[in-house]
Amino acid sequence: MSGIRGSVNLLRVAVRSQIVSKATLSHKPAKHHLSVGEQAIAMTAFFITILGPSGYVLAHMENYKHHS
């Protein structure tokens, strides 16, 4: 029974150490507004970064199936 209590105490310590305080948020407007061109470049970079690798894997799915 003391083994269970010890493991419960270890779990409590682990959970307590991972509690993080809330971040302070500011409600001020942006200091620098992005132009439409800058927004388009940022969105394109995000789409390529996220969808590029998954598209490559899906395009080569048959190669992965026959490789093993």
Automatic annotation (TrEMBL):
Domain of life of the source: Eukaryota
Classification via PANTHER family: CYTOCHROME C OXIDASE POLYPEPTIDE VIII, CYTOCHROME C OXIDASE SUBUNIT 8B
Keywords, sorted A to Z: Membrane, Mitochondrion, Mitochondrion inner membrane, Transit peptide, Transmembrane, Transmembrane helix
Entry protein name: Cytochrome c oxidase subunit 8B, mitochondrial-like
Membrane topology term: Single-pass membrane protein
Keyword Transmembrane: yes
Recorded family membership: Belongs to the cytochrome c oxidase VIII family.
One of the protein's GO biological processes: mitochondrial electron transport, cytochrome c to oxygen
Pfam families documented for this protein: COX8 (PF02285)
Keyword Heme: no
Species the sequence originates in: Salvelinus namaycush (Lake trout)
Alphabetical list of InterPro entries matching this protein: Cyt_c_oxidase_su8 (IPR003205), Cyt_c_oxidase_su8_sf (IPR036548)
Pathway: Energy metabolism; oxidative phosphorylation
Regions that span the bilayer: 40-59
Phylogenetic lineage: Eukaryota, Metazoa, Chordata, Craniata, Vertebrata
Principal location: mitochondrion
Intracellular or extracellular location(s): Mitochondrion inner membrane
